[in-house]
Design brief:
The structure holds two protein chains of two kinds. By secondary structure, chain A is α+β, with helices and mostly antiparallel strands. Chain A has three domains: 232 residues; 61 residues; 121 residues, 2-Layer Sandwich (Heat Shock Protein 90). Chain A contains 16 helices and five strands. In chain A, strand 2 and strand 3 form a beta hairpin. Chain B is of the alpha/beta class. Chain B has a six-stranded parallel β-sheet with strand order 2-1-3-4-5-6, sandwiched between helices. The chains are: A alpha+beta, B alpha/beta. Chains A and B meet through helix 10, helix 11, helix 12, helix 13 and strand 1 of A and helix 1, helix 4 and helix 6 of B.
Chain lengths: 467, 223
């Protein structure tokens, strides 16, 4: 931050230092000023974000390069100090392009899209320093990144004369970065893509401008070219800054939505469990107490009162039947076995109750694992809904249920070889409810079906930290 | 036969009192304590050394499977005390958890058996003798489950032998099984011999082998 400010100050002094070249210096500094300002703003608003640091780095390195060029022009022509300053400023300026490459490679998350990108970026940094040094040594005059008039190069090596144009290689860095950004865009989420579009366009314009500077100057004239360049210069860093700010805002908002959804899912499951417990502790216990009283009355009944005994027996049966109904009702609201014994046991128990020939495959790491209430409930009701649908619609007694976990994801599948249906995306009552239930637990439901080829329900739920 | 001394554990007052009166009305059972939590149950067993315990599965503070944990603790500390667990859950998972380390002296009955005092007393007496009893509803579910898990040692048993095993799981004597299946006692003995053979339960006291057969049955069903 501070070295950048010092360099910016030095550049701003250029009209006093180099009155005849002030316009050229300030035009060249427009882009670095833009990056510096955007980087400083980003650092203030999103401290610690790698993209903010890279924005600032591009600005500082280019401003330092330009300040060096200004300083070099004031040193005695052809002297060693002037040559050294020229070399340093050239290396700094070229490194600015590598910082731009790193920025493009890290945008928008701050991390590389692929771990291997770190290698090429490091190679580019080293190669740029070497190539720039070679070009500096090969140049017959002292190098100035602003192409200001300079004296003869005391360090000139005639053998490297042919490499004096190698500077242009530094321009390959942003081109490579643009390529990486485009590649990342292809696989990016909708959210990320929204943040990437504008920076891609502005960077493409800038890269095209850098590559075709000479041509544009000849065709459009130096004034128009300069105006275009300064315009692009403000647009590029601005697009990155805005993208960065919007991204973190959207991400924060999404995270808040996810959190509240998870909370709602937890509350819903707890509420159902509470209702189940109320039924158990209330109505069910009352019925059982009644049952005991009826049995006691029957036991105390004297001999010979067969009609009353039969009646009491019938009452007892009826109470037992109501009690069983209540038990099934409570189980439909929230199966206690899910809370007490876990997902797999609850699924086994549910399948044992259905007149279906269900095969159940459970991966060993799932067998005794617990996954948290909302996930277990969502997975359980997926199996229940799936096998119930097989029973009702599929016209087959075959079903295959599998529960597996891998890579922090729990996958629950219900497959049948039955009738199937035409449009799996068409909303269906039960499946819509199920989709919502899975979404609330952070998961997704996939339905595939084709007439004559059966149906597959597949739910995928995040269980990181549980398996 | 002398009266069975029983400790009763049930958190609902109405059910606890109803069950207590019902058990005492049989004159085969004396309820020496009626408590409301698993901790009080363990304490009462420690103090009173009953013959058997009748406990609810779901009790304060967790309202989960406190009854099963108490049953394991009682069987570990006092192997002579039979434990009958009463449960509202018709899920096999609970029974399998109860019989995790063996079925000796344990019974799992659905709570609506409160309406059948003869069955309650039978289960208490059976567990007190070291036998085990499983509610018929659970057994049917376990057999259904066995069919879905094809790799079972029980596959070698014939349908009739499975019937006999199921009756054994309820703690019935050979004579009672014969009566229920309309077979002679001698053919029941033959079936039981075949079951022991197929399950490789060699020699040993008859009672232990019967229990082992039941445990094998439950294990296989739950595997």
């Amino acid at each position: 931050m501070l070295p950048g400010a010092a360099c910016a100050f030095a550049v701003l002094l250029s009209p006093a230092v180099l009155p005849d070249q002030a316009g050229r210096v300030l035009t060249a500094a427009a882009l670095p000023f833009g990056f510096y300002a955007a980087g400083a703003t980003a650092r203030a608003l999103r401290p610690g974000h790698p993209v903010a640091d890279r924005l600032l780095a591009v600005g500082v390195l280019h401003l330092a390069g330009i300040a060096g060029a200004v300083a070099g022009a004031r040193l005695p022509g052809g002297s060693w100090p002037a040559a050294t300053v020229g070399w340093v400023s050239a290396v700094l300026f070229a490194s600015g392009f590598v910082a731009l490459l790193d920025l493009l490679a890290r945008y928008p998350t701050g991390q590389y899209a692929w771990a291997w990108v770190a290698g090429p970026v490091r190679v580019a940094a080293v190669a740029t320093a070497i190539v720039t040094t070679v070009a500096v040594l090969g140049s017959p005059r002292i190098v100035s990144v602003l192409e200001l008039p300079t004296g003869p190069n005391p360090a000139h090596l005639a053998a490297l004369a042919s490499a004096s144009g190698a500077f242009l290689v530094a321009l390959a860095a942003p081109l490579l970065g643009l390529g990486l950004l485009l590649a990342r865009y292809r696989g990016a989420s909708v959210l990320d893509r929204g943040q990437m579009r504008w920076p891609i366009v502005t960077t493409a314009v800038l890269v095209a401008g850098l590559v075709s500077t000479g041509l544009a100057e000849r065709v459009l004239g130096p004034e128009v070219q300069t105006a275009l360049f300064v315009g692009a210069a403000t647009a590029v860093p601005a697009s990155f800054l805005i993208g960065l700010l919007r991204r973190t805002e959207e991400a924060d908002r999404l995270a808040a939505v996810e959190e509240s959804r998870a909370r709602i899912a937890q509350v819903a499951v707890s509420e159902r469990r509470r209702i189940e417990r109320d039924l158990h502790d209330g109505a069910q216990q009352q019925l059982l107490a009644l049952l005991a009283r009826v049995e006691l009355a029957r036991a105390r009944l004297g001999e010979g009162d067969e009609a009353v005994e039969r009646e009491l027996g019938a009452i007892g049966e009826a109470i037992g039947s109501v009690h069983r109904d209540l038990r099934e009702l409570a189980r439909g609201i929230h199966p206690a076995v899910l809370t007490d014994c876990g997902l797999v046991e609850a699924v086994r128990s549910a399948l044992a109750r259905l007149p279906l020939d269900t095969r159940l495959d459970v991966s060993p790491d799932v067998e005794r694992s617990r996954f948290g209430e909302p996930v277990e409930a969502a997975a359980y009701f997926l199996v229940l809904e799936g096998v119930t649908n097989v029973l009702k619609h599929a016209d087959t007694a075959d079903a295959h249920v599998s529960i597996t976990a891998a890579g922090g994801l729990l996958t629950v599948t219900v497959r049948d070889p039955g009738r199937g249906f035409a449009d799996p995306r068409e909303p269906r009552g039960g499946l819509t409810g199920l989709r919502d239930r899975l979404a609330a637990a952070g998961g997704v439901l996939e339905v595939t079906s084709r007439p004559g080829y059966g149906t597959t329900l597949r739910g995928v739920l995040p269980v990181a930290g549980h398996v | 036969m002398s009266e069975l001394r029983v400790v009763l554990a049930e958190d609902s007052y109405l059910v606890r009192e109803g069950t207590r009166q019902l058990l005492e009305s049989t004159e085969e059972v004396t309820v020496v304590a009626a408590v409301g939590t698993a901790d009080e149950l363990l304490d009462a067993v420690e103090r009173l050394r009953p013959d058997a315990v009748l406990t609810d599965i779901r009790m304060p503070p967790g309202h989960g499977t406190e009854g099963i944990r108490a049953a394991h603790a009682i069987r570990a500390g006092h192997p002579g005390v039979g434990v009958v667990v009463l449960s509202q859950h018709a899920d096999e998972g609970y029974a399998l958890e109860l019989f995790r380390d063996g079925a000796d002296g344990l019974a799992y009955l659905l709570k609506e058996r409160i309406g059948d005092r003869a069955q309650l007393v039978h289960a208490l007496a059976e567990t007190c003798r070291g036998g085990s009893v499983v509610d018929p509803v659970l057994l049917d579910a376990l057999v259904g489950r066995r069919r879905r898990d094809p790799s079972s040692a029980l596959d070698e048993l014939t349908g009739r032998e499975l019937d006999v095993l199921r009756e054994m799981a309820q703690g019935r004597s050979n004579a009672a099984i014969a009566a229920r299946l309309y077979l002679s006692e001698s053919s029941i003995e033959k079936h039981i011999g075949a079951i022991f053979g197929k399950l490789r339960l060699g020699d040993g006291p008859e009672l232990h082998r019967r229990v082992a057969a039941v445990v094998t049955y439950l294990r296989a069903a739950g595997a």
